[in-house]
Amino acid sequence: MFNTLHAGKLAVLGGSIPLDGRVSWVSRGATGFQPSNAYLLTDGSSSLLIDSGLAVHTEEILDDLAGLIGEGGGVSIFFTRPEMDCVSNLEPIAGRFDIERLFTGGVINPFDAFDDLSRLALRGRRHQIDAQRTEEGDSMARAAEIEIAPGRVLEVESPLLRLLPTFWGWDKETGTLFTSDTFTHGVMDRPDGQRIIDSTVEDTTTVEQVAGHLYAKYEWIPRSTCEPLREWLRDKFDTLAPEVIAPSRGCVLKGRDVVQRHLEFMLDALTPQLV
Fold first, then answer.
1. 224: domain range?
2. Which InterPro entries does the UniProt record give (predicted)?
3. pLDDT tens column, 129-140
4. What are phi and psi of 159, to 5 degrees?
């Protein structure tokens, strides 16, 4: 069942997976259950889905979408990364709903794996969000935006902390920063637990937990000079002052105090000698 983050504007969809030693993107010994998230931004009759969740949650994602936009309704999709926890449900979504626009980066064509759908029919709806280059040679167009509805846009940029082509999104309307595979450390103690950490929840997160999840994906961090990453991250949060951190995995972090606390955890984790 989806959770509303901002009435009529933003919801989080998806399920959870057990951390039982079979998941490679979490720290060794991690326990509990990790949410797998897709986010639906809505504005009037317009909808933008950010990522599509894991294939194991296909039915939950499809049923939640039907409840939010109507059976067979139109939706645009933005993928933050070309990895399976983001793109797995593209084909079943396309089979049940009308994909109006698809925003992707990098060189992978997400329609290549389709068996039952016509790639030709959807090819013209795909938009390359990193097609432009700046004078400095960066592959990301710094002013990239996705129009959700007239007067409302999702600002997109490539974060300094990344492996594969990765994109963050900023929705000023709801104060939400979509962080893809960063800030993924929030876990639940049971599969139907609270997937949103806010002021009503006892937050037991530690910097060691944050560091463990971060290093599982970015194993080079403990051996690196991370001050540029710290400076970039703090500047980004100072500039945007987000109310919500929305990762593709892990609990949603909601509320200015919660966001600030977890930012400090992350900054400490990016100072490995202190952890």
1. 3-131+149-274
2. RibonucZ/Hydroxyglut_hydro
3. 765 544 444 444
4. -70, 155
